[in-house]
Write a sequence for this structure.
């Protein structure tokens, strides 16, 4: 069965659409408004052009603007892929393409989809998607609270913590603290509503380095990886998805640079896992033994912490995938993965 690739550059107001039926060329189909009527006209135009071919939609993640279109396309029986924008840009450079406009981006996505076997996107289960939205909102509020507290500290440090500005900052801090408390209560209520999520979180908290603060973001990550791979993905694939996979730099006999991690995934989750390793390695558990064994072997401490972060991720995936409790004896017997540096 032939594949008809549709590349769409998504913005808040407009959708630029290009199509490709082979690896060699792509055609610009047009521009549509990013609303219900525009999407309906887009679907009709593409389906009329594609005929009996299987339609494969390729878009870059754009902060959520692509989500309505992705869900509607799935409902119409289209295949959907959301490739890493960095991979698309690297491929474009390898093809000698330098122009960047909305039209050119749509053509690029169509060509990229026609030349690569891309993993198919599946939406998160509704309970997990709602949990992710709550966690994102909590993160946003906490970021704003840090900013306001920094402003308060700056005012205090220069003896200016009086007057309307200080009162405004203090009021903002109080509001944000209350809003965060409300979100925390909403998260707890959500877990009560979906006991399977609470049980998954309970099992994950048995993994060294995973606690009350980081367990839910890690749970959402594992659900996303499971949806992406039909729960058949490997631990090695997961570490690459997060960007903790090693990236050696060697050529011939003279070019040698320290290995690094690829940093392909979201920086926030890598930072979360690194801090998880930093805290977990301070306890009396198999993660601390793993970390100390690497340091005793002469590995730099930062390298050992990154290896510990990968170990946490591998253990968490095994617990999540198998619906099993964490077994410290089994974990301590596992062989160490290859060790990247920062």
């Amino acid at each position: 069965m032939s594949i008809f690739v549709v590349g769409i550059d998504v913005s808040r107001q407009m959708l630029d659409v290009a199509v490709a039926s082979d690896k060699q060329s792509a055609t610009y189909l047009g521009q549509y408004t990013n609303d219900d009527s525009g999407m309906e006209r887009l679907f009709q135009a593409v389906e009329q052009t594609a005929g009996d071919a299987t339609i494969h939609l390729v878009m870059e993640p754009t902060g959520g603007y692509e989500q309505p279109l992705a869900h509607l396309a799935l409902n119409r029986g289209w295949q959907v892929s959301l490739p890493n924008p960095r991979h698309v840009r690297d491929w474009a450079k390898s093809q000698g393409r330098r122009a960047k406009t909305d039209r050119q981006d749509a053509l690029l996505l169509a060509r990229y989809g026609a030349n690569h076997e891309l993993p198919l996107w599946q939406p998160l289960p509704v309970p997990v998607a709602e949990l992710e939205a709550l966690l994102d909102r909590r993160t946003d509020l906490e970021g704003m609270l840090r900013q306001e507290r920094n402003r308060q500290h700056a005012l205090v440090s220069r003896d200016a913590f009086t007057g309307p500005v200080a009162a405004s900052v203090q009021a903002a801090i109080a509001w944000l603290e209350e809003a965060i408390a409300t979100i925390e209560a909403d998260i707890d209520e959500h877990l009560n509503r979906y006991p399977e999520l609470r049980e998954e979180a309970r099992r994950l908290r048995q993994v060294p380095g995973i606690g009350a603060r980081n367990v839910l973001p890690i749970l959402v990550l594992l659900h996303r990886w499971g949806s992406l791979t039909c729960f058949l993905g490997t631990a090695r694939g997961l570490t690459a998805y997060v960007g903790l996979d090693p990236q050696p730099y060697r050529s011939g006999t003279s070019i040698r640079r320290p290995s690094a991690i690829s940093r392909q995934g979201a920086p926030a989750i890598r930072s979360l896992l690194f801090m998880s390793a930093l805290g977990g390695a301070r306890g009396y558990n198999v993660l601390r033994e793993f970390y100390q064994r690497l340091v005793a072997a002469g590995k730099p401490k930062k390298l050992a912490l990154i290896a510990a972060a990968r170990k946490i991720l591998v253990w968490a995936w095994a617990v999540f995938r198998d619906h099993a409790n964490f077994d410290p004896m089994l974990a301590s017997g596992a062989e160490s993965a290859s060790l990247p540096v920062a």
Notes: DSSP finds 13 helices and seven strands in the chain.
